[in-house]
Amino acid sequence: MHSSECHAILCRRPDGKFQYDEANPATLNLYGMSRYQVVGKTIDDVFPPDSAAELSAHLEKCLRSAAPHSYSRKHGKSVVDAIATPIPAEPGKPARLAVTARDVSERQNLEEQLRQAQKMEAVGQLTGGLAHDFNNLLQGIIGALDRAQHRIQQGRASEADRFIGAAIESANRAASLTHRLLAFSRRQTLDPKPTDANKLIAGMEDFIKRTVGPNILVEVVGSAGLWPTLVDAPQLESAVLNLAINARDAMPNGGKLIIETANKWLDDRAARERDVLPGQYVSVCVTDTGVGMSPEVVARAFDPFFTTKPIGQGTGLGLSMIYGFARQSGGQVRIYTEVGKGTTMCLYLPRHFGISEEPEVTSSHEPDQGFGETVMIVDDEATVRMLVDEVLTENSYRVLEAPDAASAMKILNSDQSIDLLITDVGLPGSMNGRQLADAARTTRQNLKVLFITGYAENAAVGNGHLEPGMEILTKPFPMASLANKVREMLG
Length: 491
What we know:
Low-confidence stretches: 359-364, 456-460
Shape: extended
Oligomer: single chain
CATH topology of the largest domain: Heat Shock Protein 90
Helix content: 40-55%
Number of strands: 17
Strand order of the largest sheet: 2-1-5-4-3
Structural class: alpha/beta
Mean pLDDT: 83
């Protein structure tokens, strides 16, 4: 039986072309040619011009380096992995090389099938856990609203408040769950800004101490001269808090929790170990003296819905959310652990070359009133339009509504005065919210735009880059936050 590997000997002729001196049956079979059509012929005779030029470039590189050269190339529907090796030159004879190749198409197809099977298994685990958690949360929302409505019908409206409060609590937990899921899939809309991680963590220190309890000693070690990093500050806060809570749970009998920042310059080797590009990074590490993790747990730690906590005490989304946030921010998260000794979780975030900004303080006061400005809301959800109309009208704005981009463009192309466009990013029809905003600004150059979205790939808002006069709010949001944002944008 002939070898399944392709072997060929080629020489470089005086005119610079490569000629086949020998080719085994596997090579002829791959090319679909006879020995007469290959041996004694040049690469240009055997292959089309583009393919011949590509192969010649690989062979030239091999001869120039005087060392084996590996490469991959397509041949028809096949993918070929090959290695060209120079043959010691004989005086007065042309340069020669040996090429060994293998058709790896079947292997790649099997690998793709394996990846697809693993992906479907992960999707099955994800949807199963998601359905369980959301059904519980929806039960709380629907049940509480049902009881509130019942109390109002009985004329006992004063007793409805606690049920409405319970519904809001469950809804907020559902919102938190979707944010974690979007973070895991790297699809949440981040608002990265130059951030001083030292200041951010110092501002959280008291809250972390209260969260982990008196049995755990918390120590924060901020590096002097820490570089800024370009991240979404609330997401970084959420990541640090999640790591602190995990550390607390790993120390049921108490212990020590250290949060440490540092500047890291990762060379090729260090970057390869952490699966990031070489360069300068800011590290944020959370260390505990707890039970540690086994290699089996470490291998699955970032899987969605994987948790070692008892049922009802963890969603298994905390670490997957942190992983998604770190990767979407251009960084990485790594685990260093020893069973019985403790664990260190390190976030590596790229250095920002510039000055950091002070973290924004979320306003909780009642929104300031408008001055009769006209605001247009575009959203395919009638309930969302109704709620936006309600809160803005209540705050003295004039509101226009449209369910899709086509309807909105009719109004935007009219003489109607519009001070602010509020639009969902995902709209029905052929035009999304970003495209609508761009089209509107062709005739209304100074139109301010507020995007509201529950799911937005960065590409939908311009790869995360908003133009001046454009801002974004992620659904769900408190209605007071919307009104404050409108007042802020209208100045």
